[in-house]
Amino acid sequence: MTSVQPAATIELSEKARAAAVRTAPHVTIRGLSKKFSDATIYDDFDFDIPRGKLMSVFGPNGCGKSTLINMIAGLFPADKGEILFDGQPLNKIKFGYVFQNYREAVFPWLSAFDNIAYPLKVMGVPKADRNVRVEKIVASLNVKIDLKLYPYQMSGGQQQLVSIMRALVVDPEILFLDEPFSALDYEMTLFMREQLQRVFQETHTTTVLVSHDLEEAVYLSDRILLLSRHPARAVEFVHYDAPRPRTDRTMTESDFIQTKAHCLEIFQREVRKG
Amino acid sequence: MNWKRLEILLPFVGVAVLLAIWSFTVWLRIVDPVLLPSPVATFKAMWAGMFHGKLGVDFIKTVERTIYSTIIAAVIAIPLGVLLGSSEKLYRSVEFLIDFFRSTPASAMFPLFLVLFGVGDRTKIAVAAFGAALVILFNVAYGVMNARKTRILAAKVMGASRVRVLWDVMLLESMPATFVGLRNGVSLALVIVVVAEMFIGSVDGLGQRVFEAQQMFEMPDMYAAIFAAGALGYGLNLLFLTIERRFVHWAGK
C-alpha cells in the first residue's frame, strides 16, 4: 500500500505541472538590453508574454516595437538578456514570422504553393507530406487563390496572405507579425484582420502583433502592451476581453471605445514626454 | 482599321529606309562602286558565302570560339562571383583589381596571351574568356551583394542554414544580374574573338574573313562578312535574352 501513495502524488504533480504550463507565461524576457549607435532602445527590460493570447505591441515611433519582436524571433541579437520559450531557447521551438514588406519577404522565383511549402522543405519534410500540409493550411483559411501563380502575379493582399500561410504551415508555437497590414490598402486590411482573427480563433497560437494602428491593435488583441519612448518600458499591459468573433459592431461597443480611449491617452502622454 | 496589326512591321521601316538610301547612293554613283557594292550584290555574296563558300565555315568557327570562351568565363566567374559577393569585405578587397582589369582593353592583352598560349585557338578563346569573365564576375558579385536583406532574413527565420540561404536565396536573387553579366559577357567575347581572328595568324573565323576580303579588295564579300558578324552578335543577344525571360521570369517585377 505504501507504494501507491507516491505514485498518486506523481500523477497529481504531473497534472499540476501541466496546468501550470498552461497558465505560465509562454515567453519570458529578462534583462533585455539593446543599443543602437545613437540610442539605447532597451535597458534591462523584463516582460512575460502570455500563452495563447493575441498580444499587440503599441507605442511611439522609434520606441522599439519592431526591435522587440525582431530580437525575440532572433532576427538580430540582443546586447544582453535572456529570452526563453517555456524555458527553452529559440532554436528549440517552431515559430512563424510575418514581415511588413511582403514584396521583399516572399520568394518571387517560387510559386505561391512552393513559397508556403518552403519552411517545411528547410525542416526536411518529404515532398508528399509538404503538399498535404500546404493543402491543409490553405483549406483551413478558406483561401481562394490560384497557388500556381507567382507572387508578382498576385495582389499585395494575396502576397501577404501567402506569407502568413508560410508562417502558419509549420504549426508554430508562437506567431510574430511585424506591422503585417500596413502596406495594404484599407479594403484589404479589413479583410486580412478577419483572416488573422479566424486563424487565432481556430488555433489559439500565442500571437505577437506589432501595430501602428491603435484601432486595429485593440480590435484584434486580448492584450495590448503599451511601450514608452526609448529606452522602452512597459507602461501598461491593457486587457481587452471582448468575445470572438469580433465584428464591426464590436468597435461601437462602449468597452471597445473605452479601452481604445485609455490606450490613446497613455500613448499621447508618452509621446509628449519625448 | 488594321493599323494595329501593321504596327508589328515597324521595326522593318528602318531597315527599308537604310536599304533605300544604300540603293539610291549606288544608283547615283555618289560612292565609288568598287567601295560600295549594291545591296543585291552584297546579299548574293552573303548567300553564296554562307551556303556554298567559306563564309559559312568561318561563321561556325567564330560561333564556336565565342561560345567556348563564354562558357569558360561563366564556369569560372559565376561561382567566384557568388563567393566574393557573399562577403562584402572580401569583394571590397579585390574590387580595385576587378575594376582595373575590367577597364583594361582586352586587346592589349593579346601579346601576353600569345606568349602564354601560343598561336592558335587557345589564345583567342583565352583572351575572350578573360574579358567576359570579369564582366560576368562583377555582375554576379553585385547581384549577390544586393540580394534583398529581408528575403535573406526570411529564410534565416525559417531556420535555413548559411549554405541553404546562399543556395536558395542569394544565388536566385543574383540571377537577374547574372544574366545581364552573361549578355554583356557574350557580346564582349564576340568582339574580342573577331578582333583576335583579324590578327595573330588566323586561318579562319569571321574576323579573318573580313580582313582577307578587304586585302583582296572583294568588297561584296567583306560587307557580307560584316553583316554575318552583326547577325551573329544580334542573334547571341536575342538567344540569351530569350533564355533569361524563360529562366528568370521574375526579373524586374
Characteristics of this structure?
heterodimer; A: 274 residues; alpha/beta; six-stranded mixed sheet; three-stranded antiparallel sheet; 9 helices; 42% helix; 21% strand; globular; B: 253 residues; mainly alpha; 12 helices
**Strands side by side in the biggest sheet of chain A:** 5-6-7-3-8-9
Sequence of secondary-structure elements of chain B: HHHHHHHHHHHH
Q: How many H/I helices of chain B? A: 12
Helix content of chain B: over 70%
Radius of gyration of chain A, CA atoms, in whole angstroms: 20 Å
Major pleated sheet of chain A: 6 strands, mixed
Shape category of chain A:
globular
What overall form of chain B do the CA principal axes indicate?
globular
The number of strands of chain B is: 0
Share in helix of chain A: 40-55%
Percent strand of chain A equals 15-25%
Residue ranges of chain B: pLDDT <50 for 5 or more in a row? none
For the secondary structure, the number of strands of chain A is 9
What class would the helix/strand composition of chain A place it in?
A: alpha/beta
What is the strand content of chain B?
under 5%
How many individual helices of chain A?
9
Provide the residue-averaged pLDDT of chain B: 91
**Element-by-element helix/strand order of chain A:** HEEEHEEHHHHEHEHEEH
> Uncertain runs of chain A with pLDDT below 50, 5 residues or more?
1-9
Of all chain pairs, the largest interface belongs to: A-B, 22 and 21 residues
Question: How would you characterize the overall build of this protein?
Answer:
The complex is a heterodimer of chains A (274) and B (253). Chain A is an alpha/beta fold and 274 residues long. Chain A is 42% helix and 21% strand. Chain A has nine helices and nine strands. Chain A has helices spanning 4-23, 65-72, 102-105, 112-122, 127-140, 156-168, 186-203, 214-220, 254-273; strands spanning 27-36, 39-49, 54-58, 80-85, 95-98, 174-178, 206-210, 223-227, 234-239. In chain A, helix 7 links the parallel strand 6 and strand 7. In chain A, helix 8 (214-220) crosses helix 9 (254-273). Chain A is globular. The model of chain A is unreliable at 1-9 (pLDDT under 50). By secondary structure, chain B is mostly helical. Chain B is 80% helix and 0% strand. Chain B has twelve helices and no strands. In chain B, helix 7 runs antiparallel to helix 10. The chains are: A alpha/beta (274), B mainly alpha (253). The A-B interface holds A 73-75, 97, 99, 101, 104-109, 118-119, 122-123, 150-152, 163, 166, 170 and B 148-151, 153-160, 164, 168-169, 172, 175, 248-250, 253.
